[in-house]
Amino acid sequence: MRAQEPACTRRVLALLGTALALSACATQSQLSPAAQQPVPAPAQVFPPSYQPQEITGRWGLAAFHKPDDRARTEAAARNQCKNAYAISMGPSGGVMMHLADSPKAEELVLKGGPGGKTYVGPPGEPGGAKDREFVAFDGRIMILRFVDQEVAGRYGTMVYVRCGPRA
């Protein structure tokens, strides 16, 4: 049957076959392994709701595990002003505070997160395992919760009450 096909039809079929073969080669070269990997979207940067200067100072510090204990804990923190916890400015613009289980203060940064959240912790993505999330802050009372659930279970929710100038 092939012998009876016109030469023109055979040429067209040959050209189509060649075109398909070449298009397959071109497609494979465009899909190299580097091209197949998705390009990560740039991380969205959110500004923190508070500035380091706003949280520096002397603070009475206490903690609670049950939300019902918050008022009592604020009073206990106020009584700690005689042995105040100091938050100072760090050399790079952050704040000097202690990480969980660390005996020495180190420079931490304030980081904004999605939904208007603010965190304080080592440089890196907001909401990291070593971060604390701001639960509340009005200038006089600052409430921070550890992001890491195991650490939060040990330390509770931290209540800082700003100490007056004579405390």
**How many strand units?**
8
Number of domains: 2
Q: N-to-C SSE series?
A: HHHEHEEEEEEHE
* Alpha carbon gap, first and last residue: 106 Å
Class of secondary structure makeup? alpha+beta
Which residue ranges are poorly predicted, with pLDDT under 50 across at least 5 consecutive positions?
A: none
Strand order of the biggest β-sheet: 1-2-3-4-5-6-7-8
- CA radius of gyration is 31 Å
Shape: elongated
As a percent range, the share of strand residues is 25-35%
What oligomeric state best describes the polypeptide chains here?
single chain
Largest sheet: 8 strands, antiparallel, barrel
Mean pLDDT across every amino acid position: 85
Tally of DSSP helical segments:
5
Percent helix: 25-40%
Supply database-style keywords.
167 residues, alpha+beta, 2 domains, eight-stranded antiparallel β-barrel
Give the SSE map:
Elements: H1 7-30, H2 33-36, H3 52-55, E1 57-64, H4 70-78, E2 85-89, E3 95-98, E4 105-112, E5 118-121, E6 132-137, E7 141-146, H5 149-155, E8 157-162
Antiparallel strand pairs: 1-2, 1-8, 2-3, 3-4, 4-5, 5-6, 6-7, 7-8
